[in-house]
Amino acid sequence: LVEPALRVALWAIAFWIAYHLQVRLEHHLVNWREFGYLVAAGAFVVAAAWPRTAQSIAPDEPRTDVFARYDRWLAIAVPLCVLGAAAVLGIFFRTHDLNSRPVGIWYDEAQNGLIARRILDGDFPPIFIGRDTQLPSAFFYIYALAAKIIGEGVLSLRVVSTIGGLAALPFVFLLARQLFGLRTGVLAIFLLAVMRWHVNFSRFGVTNIFAATFVLGATYFFVLGLRGGRRWQWSLVASGVFVGLTPYAGFYGAFVPVVIVLYWLHAGIFERALTLRLHAAAIVIVVLAALAIYSPVALWGLNHRDSYLSRTNTASISKGKTTEQTYHAVLKSTRKHLLMFNSQGDGNGRHNLPNVPMLDRFTGILFLLGLALAFTRLHKSSHFLLLVWVAVFLQNGIWSVAFEAPQAFRSSAVTPGVAMLAALPLAALWDAAARARTAGASAGGVGAAYARAQTWAVRGGVTAAIALLLGLIAYSNYDTFFNKELDDPRVWTAYNTDITFVARRMEAVEKNHTILISSLFSSPVITYVDPAAGELHQYQMDLSRDVPLGGDRPTRILLDATKQPDFAWIKTLYPAAAVSTISPPGLGAVPVVYQIDVSADAIAGLQGVRATYERPDAAPVTRREPKLAFDWLSQPPPLPIPFHARWDGALRFADYQSHIISVIAPGAITLRIDGQEVASGNGRVDFGSAPYRGLRTISIDANIDSLNEVAVLDQGLPVAAANLFSGDAVETRHGLVATFYHNTNFADPVAFQQLDPFVGFRNHEELPFGSNFSATWKGHLDAPETGLYTFFLDAVDKGSLLLDGHVVLDRTALTEKQLTLTAGT
Q1: DSSP alpha helices (H): ranges in 377-486?
Q2: Longest C-alpha distance within the chain, in Å?
Q3: Alpha carbons 591 and 610: distance in angstroms, whole number
């Protein structure tokens, strides 16, 4: 009993040291002291798992039937319990609330769903889809089949990934058992079943999770084949099939041939079961089988190299860098990827609870101890394989664009290797406890009973400790994933939750509403959730063009979080509008969607102009005219002829082009725009200009001396009621006149001008042209009261803020400044 107890004690010391190391890593402490902790923890766990010599193994004493029966029963029952728990938890973690959480639908998921929809509609894509996904098309037929069976929706996409994630579990058990034995196999399947990293991508409607599964299949059958047996050739054929399938899931498992070849070389040197000739034939069988499976895509790629390699070239860390820059970038990325397991994980909310270590605390500790064990047993191909596995599949993330590091998505094929490494030290502890036996335990009498009690105390204590540790690992992953990650605002944002809600709220009212949305919401998610949406640009809101609202239908406006000022302004225009927000769970969460529903009556209430009709012998008539187009020959005038008419309101110019505004009235006419008299005459006046986009005030005085037509025309056509506004619309008209140029030096010609209620936009989405432009905003600033005001300036390249002709802020020097202003303009 002494030796197993000593091993358990050494393992406990190793775990205790590794625990302190893990805590320090979680606090981002990484220096030589942490390296010392790692070496010390590794030394103790290696000592605890050190193979016993023949002299240290005492011969078994004769054992009673009852004692032997209990041993056999426990040897079967405990692993079965762990396997059963792994199966139940693996299914639960991957299917619980699968249709509703994650709440949002990511861009790539929607894109996959749209391609599946095309397939169901009879539009069959080529063998490789270069433009939309840069992936072979095979998986999209599987998505289409799932949609046919389950029905279109994100569930059909995620179910496919869930099946791929669940398929990895039996393979990791089979591989770990083949390499290390039953106990390591059941521990590895449990750790992978509850691993948040693997669970996350098993609930995500993209293909990368299959890379880990195919890699497991390829490696398991290759190991099986190299170890000989009656059907070793068929095992190698199966391995080649999985190798060929791996690229169909994306490039995330593309390094599997490297892993297999390195293992093949190592096994050939240290533990070859096949003859040298058969060992060489093994790799040929795998290569031929892999080529047979992947050759259709490979041939397509040879003929369409640019399209085939576009994703790889775009996501490469070396893009746009010199050799030296690439070298330093790779070193930095490598460090981040090595630390993502235990210190700081992926910051992308789709891949992880941002910046939290990819492994829970206890799995992280076991992983560190497992690495130490594997490094001391490099001569064994099984341990060598796991180290190579992690090192090779990390390259997918390391060589991705630098700003994404660490990249848990592209390196997710490491997860089975991590689970097996983490299982190694726990299996060593389990083995030590299973070998615990007290001399005399099988004899009769009180002494034997006491000896058996000692044996079972060690075994029971270790079994309970392992069960407790596995329970803590499962709960930690559940709590982090379901209670924290899925409800985190950053995760909501990363999963396009705001756009998903917008799509559903568009779909609910699109038949009888006008819909306006932020430019940020123009995404395939909209068209996937709402197939009737059509071209999204028709919904994109432009304040200068669309507000105040036109038309005679109720309008639903959906704005993103950055458009809160727009939301507040529109509420001011339409105080009776129904407003609501969508926010992540939790108190104080910032809204991600602002919704405004404006009724047709409220829209009509701001349309038209304010009309005043006067004559000396009658009371004046004041009313709202919905449009400026009358024929007083066929309808009675407001007062007997002659009378004076005045129309005040705002005229919206929806585009930047030359306009000729004409006023027709029987009598003398005066036309004012923005308070300036621009035309006067009798019977008809015309004013031509290229006004900025947006609202401009209009005032018309006319002395009506006969019954005839009255009209306001734009380019010879009557001004639509949807472009005439009165009352509050005029009073809340505000903003700066923006002038945009197609160059970076404010040089003519002017691209366009508009009245911007707020300075701030997404130039790639909200302007009619892309980069390389310059712009000015000019107008008046009204300080409501004397006091201290803070000014901010944020320009992508450079910019300046001037007040009364003096530079207040310069983007190259200062982006924030406080000034004392006197009340007034």
Answers
A1: 381-393, 395-398, 415-434, 445-478
A2: 130
A3: 37
Report DSSP letters for 589-636, one per residue.
Answer: PPPSEEEEEE-HHHHHHHBSEEEEEEETTEEEEEEEESSSEEETTTS-
- Determine phi and psi for 631, rounding to 5 degrees: -130, 90
In sequence order, what are the residues at sequence separation of 6 or more whose Cβ sits closer than 8 angstroms to the Cβ of residue 561?
498, 590, 591, 592, 593, 594
Distance CA 559, CA 592 (A): 8
**Mean pLDDT within 795-811:** 84
Burial class (CB in 10 A: 0-12, 13-18, 19+), 324: exposed
Q: Which amino acid is at 571?
A: K
Of 666, 697, 663, the residue nearest 680 (C-alpha): 663
DSSP 531: T
d(CA 235, CA 55): 39
Alpha helices by DSSP H, listed for 121-249, are 138-150, 154-180, 182-194, 196-202, 208-226, 232-245
Task: Return all residues near 15 (Cβ < 8 A) that are at least 6 apart.
Answer: 41, 45, 365, 369, 425
Exposure of 803 in the CB half-sphere (CA atoms within 13 A): 17
Amino acid sitting at position 126: P
Average of per-residue pLDDT across 808-812: 80
* Averaged pLDDT score across all residues of the chain: 88
Helix (H) or strand (E) holding 24: helix 2-26
Residue position matching structure tokens 């590895």:
188
Quickly state the pLDDT bin for 52 (edges 50, 70, 90).
low
d(CA 474, CA 382): 26
Q: Where do runs of H (alpha helix) occur along 316-414?
A: 323-339, 361-376, 381-393, 395-398
What is the phi/psi pair of residue 155, to 5°?
-60, -40
End-to-end distance of the chain based on CA atoms, in angstroms?
90
Q: What is the rounded distance in angstroms from the CA atom of residue 336 to the CA atom of residue 345?
A: 8
Alpha-carbon gap, residue 361 to 341, rounded angstroms: 10
What band does 470 get if pLDDT is binned at 50, 70 and 90? very high
289's enclosing H/E stretch is helix 276-303
Q: Which burial class, exposed, middle or buried, applies to 131 when counting CB atoms under 10 A from its CB (0-12, 13-18, 19+)? A: exposed
Which residues, 6+ apart, have CB-to-CB distance to 6 below 8 Å? Answer: none
Quickly count: other Cβ atoms within 10 Å of residue 770's Cβ. Answer: 9
Q: What is the dihedral of CA 140, 143, 148, 154, to 10 degrees?
A: -130
Q: Can you name the residues that pair with 316 across neighbouring β-strands?
A: 400
674, 692 Cβ separation under 8 angstroms: no
Overall residue count recorded for the chain in this entry = 825
pTM: 0.87
255: exposed, middle or buried (Cβ count in 10 Å: 0-12, 13-18, 19+): buried
Q: How far apart are CA 729 and CA 603, in angstroms?
A: 11
Of 382, 80, 373, 76, the residue nearest 224 (C-alpha): 382
Report the alpha-carbon distance of residue 210 to residue 164 in Å, rounded: 5
What is the tens place of the pLDDT at every residue in 250-293?
888 889 999 999 999 999 888 877 888 888 999 999 999 999 99
* Closest by CA position to 490, among listed 409, 587, 581, 584: 584
Q: How confident is the model at residue 99 (pLDDT cuts 50, 70, 90)?
A: very high
Distance CA 297, CA 305 (A): 11
Distances (CA, A) of 507 to 98, 306, 510, 525, 774: 22, 38, 5, 12, 38
CA distances from 217 to 38, 176, 241 (A): 32, 12, 9
Cα-flanking dihedrals φ and ψ of residue 614, to 5°? -140, 150
pLDDT band at residue 228, thresholds of 50, 70 and 90? confident
Sole residue written with tokens 């290797």 = 417
> What are the φ/ψ torsions at residue 219 (nearest 5 degrees)?
-70, -40
